[in-house]
Amino acid sequence: MVDAYETVCVTGAGGFAASWIVKLLLSNNYVVHGTVRQPGDSKYDHLNKLERSPENLKLFKADLLDYESLRLAISGCSGVFHVASPVPFPTAITDPEAEVLKPAVEGTLNVLKACVEAKVKRVVVVSSIAAVVKNPNWPKDQVKDERCWSDPEYVRSTKNWYYLSKTQAEAAALEFGRSSGLDVVTVCPSLIMGPLLQSTLNTSSWLLPMGFKGTRVNLVVSNLQRNVGYNYWTVVDARDLADALLLVYKKSEAGERYICTAHAIGVEEVVEKYLKISHPNYNYSPELTHTKEEEEKLSSEKLERLGWSYRPLGETLIDSIESYQKIRVMD
Ligand SMILES: NC(=O)c1ccc[n+]([C@@H]2O[C@H](COP(=O)([O-])OP(=O)(O)OC[C@H]3O[C@@H](n4cnc5c(N)ncnc54)[C@H](OP(=O)(O)O)[C@@H]3O)[C@@H](O)[C@H]2O)c1
Known about the structure:
Helices cover 42% and strands 15% of the residues. By secondary structure, the protein is of the alpha/beta class.
């Protein structure tokens, strides 16, 4: 091991956002225990190519619903980044309880219990603005900050199972911290974009290719847009999110919650201001527009006060497209 000074665990290490935090941690000399469900699968090959991974990254087979597997991965760690959670296409969910809610909520509690057993000093839980924005009682024109919580009953009534899973999991995590004394901090990213480290497309990374005209992609989009309404984006780059997670790990007080978002923009503006300039040869779908009701006003001021900053949206979009082109999603 080269100058390593602390061992931390990252759950769901092979996922889109988690891979970037693993990369950042390794480059900062952390020893990383990464949990994956199918060790040996080629979908995790990118992790073995990260700088310092041969000496400082150890992968553990673990499922969020298997406490013992989490306990083994977390044992010996002083910190945990709990990133794993199901992020399915909304239209693909058939059994919300088994596929989304249970792994998110019970899984988070399993991670936290294993952290208590391992005497972990701090856990950073990746939540989502899904746990923030769906609050019909929040004053309409007031910017949403960390005091705003999605209303679980309202979200349940809309059958938005992913949003419900993130709301319940985050609330349970903070409550667990309060009642057990475990140091828990939550971070609520908006839509995560940016280049992929892995070679397959995760759910949120489909949104950008959707701006490009293509039969297969548009078929998926039209359903998704009707159901979820992703025509107004509040966006953060996965690389800036990784910075935010490490920053709160090092600097936050216990029990805090942070919204992590950088840009807010309608899809038509994404196309006109950025994509048509950087990639003029694609045929862009004219159907991409957003309504006033879809707009969200969110604040990451609290995170910025801690020292967080983020890159320009143009950089995120260009780097994302370049990485999608490499795996031929834009063809
Ligand atoms: N993407 C976004 O726009 C966005 C926005 C806000 C918040 N978030 C949150 O950010 C986190 C990462 O999201 P992502 O976009 O990077 O998703 P992703 O690429 O799909 O990664 C999700 C990870 O969760 C793991 N996972 C799912 N169910 C599991 C289970 N039962 N046991 C163990 N591991 C399980 C998966 O592991 P395997 O590799 O083993 O399948 C995968 O590595 C999630 O907590 C998500 O809610 C995402």
